[in-house]
Amino acid sequence: MSSEKFVYSFKEGDGKNKQLLGGKGANLCEMTQFGLNVPPGFVITTSACLQYLEDGNKKLPEGIMEEVREQMQAVEKETGKGFGDGSNPLLVSVRSGSAMSMPGMMDTILNLGLNETTLQAVIKHTGDARFGYDAYRRFIQLFGKVALSVPDELFDAEFDAVKQKAHVTADVGLSADDLKEISERFLEVFQNHTGRPFPSDPYEQLEIAIKAVFGSWSGKRAVDYRREFKITPDMANGTAVNICTMVFGNRGDDSATGVAFTRNPGTGENKLYGEYLVNAQGEDVVAGIRTPKPIDKLTDEMPEMARQLEQLRQKLETHYREVQDFEFTIEQGTLYCLQTRNGKMNAVAMVRTSVEMVDEGLISKEEALLRIEPAYLEQMLYPRLSTSNTVKAVAQGLPASPGAASGMAVFDADRAEIVGRDQGKDVILLREETKPEDIHGFFAAQGILTSRGGKTSHAAVVARGMGKPCVAGAEGITVDVQRREAKIGEHIISEGDVITIDGSSGNVYMGRMEMVEPEFTEELNRLLRWADSSAKLLVMANADTPPDAVRAVKYGAQGIGLCRTERMFNATDRLPVVIDMIVAEDVGQRQAALDRLLPMQRDDFKEIFEAMAPRPVTIRLLDPPIHEFLPSEQQLESDIAKLKHLRHSVRGLSVLAGSMMLIENSENAKNDANSLRALIDETQVEQALEKKELMLKKVRMLIETNPMLGHRGVRLGITFPEIYSMQIRAILEATAECAKKDMEVNPQIMVPQVCTAEELKYVAEMVDNIREDVEKESGQKLNFKFGTMIEVVRACMRAESLVERAEFFSFGTNDLTQATFSFSREDAENKFLPMYNQNGILQDNPFEVLDEKGVGKLMKLAVDWGREVKPDLSVGICGEHGGHPASIDFCHRIGLNYVSCSGPRVPVARLAAAHASLKNDK
Ligand code: ADP
Ligand code: MG
Ligand code: MG
Asked: What is the arrangement of strands in the sheet containing 491-494, beginning at the earlier edge strand?
């Protein structure tokens, strides 16, 4: 026989032990013990539940019912009522409750303890037959349904039949006699369905109910729910059962029931928020049978109760130091609290309440920060669809970049520019997939929608970088650029039709939808400033253009951790020059193109420096393989075919012009022939054709089997030194111009793809030479840093030798992850990773969640080896992981100096950086 205690009175249970008593039970104990008016009762532990389920022969663990009886006697003594007593009966509710709130679990049984005898006593005691029969029929139905699975429909049919017979439409119209008849019919339903009479012994009722609650823990609904929401046994294991004295909100107009939040969960306003119903029981509020009144009304209807409720609100908050979501019932002028738990709020309310509770002295700044999950802030940082939206989505893709946007559908980047930039309209760029040459369309569009590609497709990556909403791979859509329309099921989207995309859910809608704009509130700013002072890690932004930089500052970035120069090359006025540079036949031609690019890049850098001054700006020299700037081989082949066709037609036309005179030798014909000749210019077509053919030749020369492991990064810089020279010069000249204006700027030149110290040395010497020149030309002393990305496995292994030339390291964890796993990202994510995740071969997608054990270990080695040589070496991360809270925590633990992520994620990262230091450095 075990000596374990299974049953705790609300007066003795440990309010902190939610694992044992469940959330509801623990709070009922705690509230009782700090003096709130909770109806007396007791809790049966989750441990009893687990033992009952383990045993498997439907018997409660030994000794439980004895403990229950003992506790029940104490309640009887306290209430002056008797369980099953024929003159003043005690009724109770039986409520489930595990450590985590779980809607999949069992419903509550109210009014347990009623039978023919106790019912009569209740009627006599209250003098209210209608109340008595109403309570009885509720109990029979709930007990039947919840404990013995009698279907609701069987009860509802009888209920409706009586209603019809009595010619009433609303339940309140039923008389005591009607309700009596209903309860009699219900008893029959019960007997017919279960094959046994309704149990009249209250303790038998109770035992059946307890077993049913325990059993519901392993019921299908609950098991599915736990699997879906990944609730593991250490989060919640078994359900407790709460037995609680019934109180009645349906005893007349001085009675009521309601639910409330201690603060407004939508706005955070510090004011009671909730609803109530007069003369009703708890479940009526939830069931929506009657429309409840806003809590403010209580002041008029029951001023004394309103005052007590306000007191209750204060007591709850002072005690829990957290916004509470609670249930109350008023029985004939007495207020009871039936449940409380921490309130669930939206992000706006979380932030506001955090800040205000600090101001009120209720919580500390650290608690205010830790109260909010960093990722939760995302809600506040992107426009989102209004929650009142009921329109159905017409297509679904991948949520590739968060936020929502509405606009006219356009099918190519040029059109996006005309309608979006020139005509100032909102547009959504809708393509099968996007390419680097579509970049100007991204700038002009509010959002991007593609029918192909994954979360790492070009569209997704670029949109995330720009902080624009993107839905990718919406396979239900067929795009026909030629006909300028797209098909989704039976819907046709013509160019110019307005659509809405939600990059947070992946949904696509027809028409314009109501949006909620992001709210970068003053409270959020204050909270994030506290975060900055708690955090050890600095948070920087990935930003490629001057507008990105301005936005990064607004989000509170302490610098730019990654500026990708190739993004500037893709702008419409640059790309042709870049292409000239690539297709150049010799060094002279190449230099001419570079001379035109230099001032453009210098101006970009200057603007970015000015936006960020004096914060550091880390500029990565050109990284992608250069063929990425050229059209694809396929595209060129089709262009050439078209041009050849055109040449043929043009030739035909000039023949026609010549032969017109043959047909009709008149002045008129001569004029026609001349204007035709003026129209057709064969040399133009010839030139275009020549250029395309040259480009095709170049593209074929540049084609690589594995471009990501090919001719890119520093390899490119060394083989085409004039490209890196131009970029370095542009950076340093911009620095000199700022210095001339006495502006403090802090550029950092960063070399990509380095694997040996020799590569770094080669570029460093270029930098030294150009520095000398620029300093001489400008007369300014240049202040900047030189460093390397660490994104190649060998670079990690050779950290101590790289550090001789590098003043900083920045981990490029996207490439480093590819290299460490030897997975090509696109192929992995589209082919085998989902299956690996499902089968538990890999827990997470390492491209989303930093792989601490592998990639992380390499990072740690590189940091340690680098700092052995240079103890003050600055180290950061600029891969996509830099904005991921768990990865940020890891970066903190291995002692990085900064993380860098896309602009809109900066606030999330700032809070995550604070969490990391508050949780790790106690
Ligand atoms: P849930 O987990 O669904 O909130 P509850 O156990 O809180 O379930 O009960 C459902 C409804 O019954 C609530 O409105 C609650 O206030 C009410 N209720 C539960 N126990 C009692 C009681 N002893 N007296 C009066 N109402 C009760
Ligand atoms: Mg429930
Ligand atoms: Mg409840």
From this structure: 477-480, 485-488, 491-494
Residue 159: both structure tokens together = 């209920």
Contact in structure between 407 and 471 (CB atoms under 8 Å) = no
Sequence letter at residue 648: H
Residues in a beta bridge with 325: 261, 341
Is residue 891 packed enough to be buried (19+ CB in 10 Å), middle (13-18) or exposed (0-12)?
A: buried
Ligand 3 centroid from CA 339, angstroms: 6
Which residues of the chain fall below pLDDT 70?
1-2, 103-105, 284-289, 456, 679
**Residue-level length of the chain:** 922
DSSP, collapsed to helix, strand or coil, labels residue 27 as: helix
**Residues marked as catalytic:** 458, 878
Could you tell me if 523 and 510 are in contact, meaning their C-beta atoms sit under 8 angstroms apart?
A: no
Cα torsion 840, 845, 849, 855: sign: positive
- Specify burial of residue 733 (Cβ count, 10 A radius: 0-12, 13-18, 19+): buried
Integer Cα distance of 147 and 155 in angstroms: 15
Entry pTM: 0.83
Rg of the chain's alpha carbons, rounded to an integer? 36
Ligand 1 pocket by C-beta < 6 Å: which residues? 39, 93, 95, 108, 110, 244-247, 282-283, 327, 329, 338-339
Neighbouring C-beta atoms of residue 359, cutoff 10 Å: 13
- Dihedrals phi, psi of 623, to nearest 5 degrees: -115, -45
Ligand (nearest to CA of 108): 1
Give the SS3 label for residue 92: strand
| Residue 105 alpha carbon, nearest atom of ligand 1 | 2
C-alpha–C-alpha distance, residues 403 and 449, integer Å? 12
| 259 beta partners | 275, 327
- Of residues 512, 514, 511, 510, the one with CA closest to residue 395: 510
DSSP string, 639-700: HHHHHHHHHHHHHHHHHHHHHHHHH--SHHHHHHHHHHHHH--HHHHHHHHHHHHHHHHHHH
Amino acid at 670: K
Q: Is the peptide bond before 614 cis (omega within 30 degrees of 0)?
A: yes
- The token duo for 326 is 């609670």
Minimal-distance CA residue to ligand 1 atom 20: 93
DSSP calls for 702-723: H--SSGGGSS-THHHHHHSHHH
Q: What is the DSSP letter of 107?
A: P
Contacts of 397 (CB under 8 A, 6+ apart): 449, 450, 451, 471, 472, 473, 474, 475, 477, 506, 508
Q: How far apart are CA 111 and CA 247, in angstroms?
A: 9
Name the 3-class secondary structure at 844: coil
CA of 260 to the centre of ligand 1 (A): 14
Alpha-carbon span 539 to 543, nearest angstrom: 13
Looking from the CA of residue 242, the nearest atom of ligand 1 is: 6
- Phi and psi of 752, rounded to 5°? -90, 155
Residue of the nearest CA to atom 8 in ligand 1?
108
Q: Is 666 exposed, middle or buried (0-12, 13-18, 19+ CB in 10 A)?
A: exposed
Residue 665 main-chain phi, psi, to 5 deg? -90, 80
Out of 138, 325, 339, 344, give the residue to mutate to test ligand 1, the one with the largest number of ligand atoms within 8 Å of its CB: 339
Nearest-atom number in ligand 1 for the CA of 96 is: 6
Name the residue with the closest Cα to ligand 1, atom 13. Answer: 282
Å from CA of 668 to ligand 2 middle = 92
Q: Which two tokens stand for residue 581?
A: 């540079």
Residue type, 922: K
For 1-126, where are the E strands, in sequence order? 7-9, 41-44, 82-83, 89-90, 92-97, 109-112
In the reported structure, the alpha carbon of residue 105 is separated from the centroid of ligand 3 by a whole-number distance in angstroms of 12
